[in-house]
Specification:
The chain is mainly alpha-helical. The protein has helices spanning 2-10, 13-30, 43-48, 54-60, 69-88, 95-116, 122-136, 155-165, 171-184; strands at 141-143, 149-151. A hairpin with a 5-residue loop joins strand 1 (141-143) and strand 2 (149-151). The protein starts with a helix and ends with a helix.
């Protein structure tokens, strides 16, 4: 058990809290301690009934079930890998700049989520961070499934295409990529 605790404490601070909250909030919903309907973004309730927590909880909540567990785990992996790399790489020693980037991306995603009536914001925020990392490391060679190798600048688009091929919605990935591009520009 000490190895797991040591690993968790080795995660950079901002990523650690984001990662832990992204596990805790879905767990609270899955265990029925909080009704999942209170965790998602309903623009009507957020804008007209002053339920201001909804954009925050919608960022951390993911409905984990038999059909979505794999997607949830893959996105937790992306969160851990690319947020850690950004926090210890491009934003090393500058936590305020990293928090600013996350807040900028989150605000853009919340605005888009309200306009497009999106209920879950976890994947777009993770994809926006992955996009920023991939642009800052654009010439690095990365590996994807089955040993495919390509430049990091293509990674967000490869993930989008892969998700399209396996039958998922590409809206979340596309919004994340566009928001990441907006920050990076």
């Amino acid at each position: 058990m000490s190895d797991l605790g040591d690993w968790f404490r080795s995660i950079p601070l901002i990523t650690r809290y984001w990662f832990a909250t992204s596990i805790a909030v879905p767990l609270l919903g899955k265990l029925g301690l909080i009704n999942p309907m209170y965790l998602i973004l309903w623009p009507e309730y957020f804008l007209h009934k002053f339920q201001i927590w909804r954009p925050v909880t919608a960022t951390f909540y993911f409905p984990v079930g038999p059909g979505s567990g794999f997607l949830y785990m893959v996105n937790l992996y992306f969160l851990y890998q690319y947020s850690s790399r950004l926090e210890t790489g491009a934003f090393d020693g500058r936590p305020a700049d990293y928090v600013f980037m996350l807040l900028f991306n989150w605000i853009c995603i919340v605005i888009t989520g309200v306009i497009m009536d999106m209920q879950l914001l976890m994947i777009p925020l993770i994809m926006s961070v992955l996009y920023v990392w991939s642009q800052l490391n654009r010439d690095m060679i990365v590996s994807f499934w089955f040993g495919t190798r390509f430049k990091a600048c293509y990674l967000p688009w490869v993930i989008l295409g892969f998700n399209y091929i396996i039958g998922g919605s590409i809206v979340n990935e596309l919004i994340g990529n566009l928001v990441g591009h907006l920050f990076f520009s």
